[in-house]
Write a structure and sequence with these properties.
The chain contains 16 helices and no strands. By secondary structure, the chain is an all-alpha fold.
């Protein structure tokens, strides 16, 4: 599958991979601050806006299985370049379009580009990590978080100072295009001699995909329901309710940026067991404990525990032998995104049937799968 690379070219490839993760986070998060403007431009109600938001997720999920096969056949370099360009160029249209159907189609394209880039950059990241013989995946995923913070913060800052959303997104578009073109020659040549067609996860990849789905589901639930949980339990006021998610985000970024140092020293097995344990304890804390400080600690513990779960799962998917690594990473990413899409709805239905605290506490049962997964036997 591979052409041998020198240490220098591997360092350049690792830096190029970091740029891809930053670019993905930058563009993806830049959409969030312009959602209210897109709603106003199209004049839709909340229900129609929900369908628009679903288009982004549908585009992402549909593109992922195809991307694994395309990466195996053509390599990750062209897929990263093409998807990043489409993603960047689609972003300004989201701030400009006024026709509902046009915005829906653009969101499908934007989502497909993000999903394609997500799979391609994770396949490339797994290959760089494999060739280098060092733990790098946590740092790569940390770069996505850095990009996401910068993207949302930058666009919000510009808009708050009166810059039109279209101009703000054009700035992000230019930044992404320049960054990707700057490092495009440093992406590795990765092709399979005989690309496999996409097929459902098999062997250990089944468990890796399940673990990814659970981790993404929990992350999505914290993002979408964490503040509402604090309000319903009267822990924080509406103005302060987002403090929990901020604590979660800060510890997740810290955990991922330090993960490349920690993972090789304590091992993947300890990350999965310890991280899963922290997530379970944190979920129980935010669903039951009464004091604001204890709830903030709970959110922080969830972020710290979850920080390196997904990177370790992606590393294992890229290095296992039960499936072609390209197909394995595509499968894991597909199930992970399915968790993000389905998670908020599942929590919503659960909260309606019981209560929001009970629905969130039930996520601890899902988190406990990390403690019993047979993946531990194949990780060190």
């Amino acid at each position: 599958m591979n052409i041998m690379a020198t240490d220098g070219s591997l360092r350049s490839a690792a830096n190029a991979t970091r740029i891809a993760f930053i670019a993905n986070g930058l563009a993806f998060s830049s959409w969030a601050p312009i959602i209210p403007f897109a709603k106003a431009n199209t004049g839709v109600d909340e229900a129609a806006l929900g369908l628009l938001l679903l288009c982004l997720g549908i585009g992402s999920v549909v593109s992922m299985p195809i991307t694994g096969w395309l990466c195996a056949r053509h390599g990750t370099r062209p897929m990263i370049l093409i998807s990043a360009m489409i993603m960047a160029c689609a972003l300004p249209f989201l701030a400009y379009l006024v026709e509902y159907w046009a915005l829906a189609i653009t969101l499908l394209i934007f989502g497909a580009a993000i999903g394609t880039l997500d799979v391609a950059m994770n396949i490339h990241a797994a290959e760089v990590e494999k060739r280098s013989g060092r733990a790098l995946m946590s740092g790569f995923h940390g770069m996505f978080s850095v990009g996401a913070i910068c993207g949302a913060g930058f666009v919000t800052l510009l808009i708050s100072y009166g810059v039109a959303p279209l101009i703000a997104t054009l700035c992000v578009m230019g930044s992404v295009i320049i960054a990707i073109l700057w490092v495009q020659s440093h992406y590795l040549i990765t092709k399979s001699d005989a690309p496999e067609p996409f097929r459902p996860p098999s062997g250990i990849v089944k468990w890796l995909a399940l673990l990814a789905g659970i981790a993404f589901l929990i992350e999505g639930a914290i993002m979408d329901w964490g503040a509402l949980l604090m309000i319903e339990r009267a822990v924080f006021s509406m103005e302060q309710a987002a403090l929990g998610y901020i604590a979660f985000s800060i510890t997740m970024v810290i955990g991922r940026l330090s993960g490349d140092y920690i993972v090789p020293r304590i091992g993947r097995r300890a990350i999965l067991l310890g991280g899963g344990t922290l997530v379970v304890l944190g979920l129980i804390a935010i669903a039951t404990l009464p004091f604001p400080a204890l709830n903030l600690i709970g959110f922080a513990v969830i972020g710290l525990g979850a920080a390196n779960l997904v990177p370790v799962v992606f590393s294992a998917a890229g290095q296992q032998s039960d499936m072609d690594p390209n197909m394995a990473v595509a499968s894991v990413t597909f199930v992970g995104y399915a968790g993000i899409l389905l998670g908020p709805a599942i929590i919503g239905f659960g909260a309606q049937a019981t209560s929001l605290p009970l629905a969130m506490a039930s996520l601890a049962l899902l988190g406990s799968v990390y403690l019993i997964s047979p993946v531990h036997k194949g990780t060190s």
